[in-house]
From TrEMBL:
Protein name per its UniProtKB record: Peptide deformylase
Co-factor binding details: Binds 1 Fe(2+) ion.
Root EC class: hydrolase
The protein's required cofactors: Fe(2+)
Residues annotated to bind Fe cation: C89, H131, H135
Comp. bias (Pro residues): 173-182
Organism of provenance: Actinoalloteichus caeruleus DSM 43889
Record's keyword annotation contains Iron: yes
Disulfide bond is among the record's keywords: no
Record family assignment: Belongs to the polypeptide deformylase family.
Amino acid sequence: MTAQPLRLFGDPVLRAPAVEVTAFDDDLRRLVRALWDTMEAHRGAGLAAPQIGVGLRVFTYHCDGAAGHLVNPTLEVLGDEVREAGEGCLSIPDLTTSCRRHRSVVARGWNMRGEPVEVRGGELLSRCLQHETDHLNGVLYLDRVSSDTRQDALERIRTADWFGHGRSTPDDNPNPSPGRGR
């Protein structure tokens, strides 16, 4: 499988809630491979299926020494501690803003073969798991920042060379996701 074009900010697929996976078959395994290859080609910490135009509840991750994928994930927040840190998104190239996220979470779901998976994340992995799960719910990280930060980000997006093009290939998007952790 080769890297797929990324859907960029403004594409409606990024705002639509993804549907649950019901078939753990070869098509799902091909999707996971496409997500992985695309995430790696763009040097991202994670990638959700809607970011390549597929409205299914699947994402891959590779950060903080952890790597894998989750199908139909759910999140549980562990504790009340919240951290603010820079966050970016492959679907919003060349933009990093400060975003508040829970410090620790546990994500539960399944792997591509239908076996249960549990991933506990702190710091960067927690941020990644929350970010990718948000994508599956049609939420972008800019929805979680202050209104002033969001306004500034939207102004920067409107003047970006990529804005309005809808898709990006790995060669078009040399921006590594901040905090890749490899």
